[in-house]
């Protein structure tokens, strides 16, 4: 692996860790809140931070880190689904299907504006966040061999 790819992976791993720490903070602030209609502004703000941080971490992971690992491992680019499937084959993530759902929720976060749907998104993010954060550990373990 050339130094440019090693530097890129190192930077992306740093971004991944920072994004995971931010998501972990928001998750801790939201995970015990019951999602229901009529949430006050402070609670809505907490959940909006959570969903933004969820989307950011999933983007860094899928769009950057998985793509860089594919380049390092001499894999074809392919689709987002291809990158996710290869991450599962590497043992970086436990379930490709779970990550497809994470990607779909990320897309819903970016494009949904109805209040009743927003509450559903909050619930799904609360459910999927532990899997997303756990994947960071798998990525760190897999990437360590390239960053030594």
Largest sheet: none
The SSE string, one letter per element, is: HHHHH
Q: Strand tally, please?
A: 0
**Which structural class fits the helix and strand makeup?**
mainly alpha
Count of DSSP-assigned helices: 5
Key attributes of the depicted protein:
148 residues; Four Helix Bundle (Hemerythrin (Met), subunit A)
Describe the structure.
The chain has one domain (3-147): Four Helix Bundle (Hemerythrin (Met), subunit A), CATH 1.20.120. The protein has helices at residues 3-30, 41-72, 80-90, 96-111, 115-147. It has 148 residues and is mainly alpha-helical. It has 5 helices and no strands. It is elongated, with a radius of gyration of 16 Å. α2 crosses α3.
Secondary structure layout plus pairing:
Elements: H1 3-30, H2 41-72, H3 80-90, H4 96-111, H5 115-147
Helix pairs in contact: 1-2, 1-5, 2-3, 2-4, 2-5, 4-5
Give a brief description.
By secondary structure, this protein is mostly helical. It has helices at residues 3-30, 41-72, 80-90, 96-111, 115-147.
């Amino acid at each position: 692996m050339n130094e440019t790819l090693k530097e890129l992976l190192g930077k992306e791993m740093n971004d991944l860790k920072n994004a995971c720490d931010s998501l972990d903070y928001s998750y801790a602030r939201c995970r015990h809140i019951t999602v229901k209609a009529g949430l006050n502004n402070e609670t809505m703000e907490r959940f909006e931070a959570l969903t933004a941080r969820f989307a950011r971490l999933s983007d860094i992971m899928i769009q950057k880190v998985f793509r860089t690992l594919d380049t390092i491992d001499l894999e074809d680019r392919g689709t987002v689904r291809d990158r996710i499937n290869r991450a599962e084959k590497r043992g970086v993530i436990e379930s490709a299907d779970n990550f497809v759902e994470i990607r779909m929720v990320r897309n819903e976060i970016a494009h949904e504006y109805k209040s009743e749907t927003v509450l559903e998104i909050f619930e799904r993010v609360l459910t999927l966040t532990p899997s997303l954060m756990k994947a960071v550990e798998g990525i760190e373990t897999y990437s360590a061999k390239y960053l030594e």
